[in-house]
């Protein structure tokens, strides 16, 4: 049940992005559900491998290269999922940061441990 709630929170975060950034568009709620699922799967399986492979660059930039990795993955999902559009790389980096902040804030509010 908690996993489904986290998925819905990420979906709502994706739906909020077009209101904050005009360079990101989500066509419908169903598109946001699919994009949130794909983002979750990519962040679970591919992101750790990329972080490990780019560890020297990440250490050299004091961890800021992880923002680049997040932006690239966000941009890739925008090109894979029909109806989820990201205008460019820097829009993807900013969108990934906003998406993380919104998801974190909603999760902190809604997934509190009782």
**Helix fraction?**
over 70%
Q: Describe the largest sheet.
A: 2 strands, antiparallel
- What's the overall average pLDDT, rounded? 95
- Read across the widest sheet, the strand sequence of neighbours is 1-2
Helix/strand/pairing category: mainly alpha
Number of domains as seen in the coordinates: 1
DSSP helical segment count: 6
Give the strand tally.
2
How do the SSEs run, as a string of H and E?
HEHHHHEH
Strand content: 5-15%
Query: Unreliable runs, pLDDT <50, ≥5 residues?
Result: none
* Coarse shape: globular
Radius of gyration: 14 Å
Amino- and carboxy-terminal Cα gap: 15 Å
Would you kindly provide a written description of the structure presented here, covering whatever features stand out?
- By secondary structure, the protein is mainly alpha-helical.
- It has one domain (14-110).
- 76% of the residues lie in helices and 5% in strands.
- The protein contains 6 helices and 2 strands; from the N terminus they run αβααααβα.
- The protein has helices at 2-20, 29-45, 47-53, 55-60, 65-80, 89-110; strands at residues 24-26, 84-86.
- A two-stranded antiparallel ribbon has the order 1-2.
- Helix 1 packs across helix 2 (29-45), helix 2 crosses helix 5 (65-80) and helix 5 crosses helix 6 (89-110).
- The longest helix has 22 residues, at 89-110.
């Amino acid at each position: 049940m908690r996993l489904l709630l986290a998925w819905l929170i990420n979906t709502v975060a994706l739906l909020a992005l077009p209101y904050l950034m005009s360079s990101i568009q989500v066509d419908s709620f169903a598109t946001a559900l699919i994009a949130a699922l794909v983002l979750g799967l990519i962040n679970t399986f591919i992101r750790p491998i990329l972080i490990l492979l780019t560890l020297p660059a990440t250490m050299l930039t004091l961890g800021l290269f992880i923002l680049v990795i997040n932006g690239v993955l966000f941009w890739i999902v925008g090109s894979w999922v029909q109806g989820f559009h990201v205008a460019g790389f820097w829009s993807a980096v900013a969108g990934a940061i906003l998406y993380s902040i919104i998801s974190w804030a909603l999760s902190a509010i809604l997934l509190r441990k009782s």
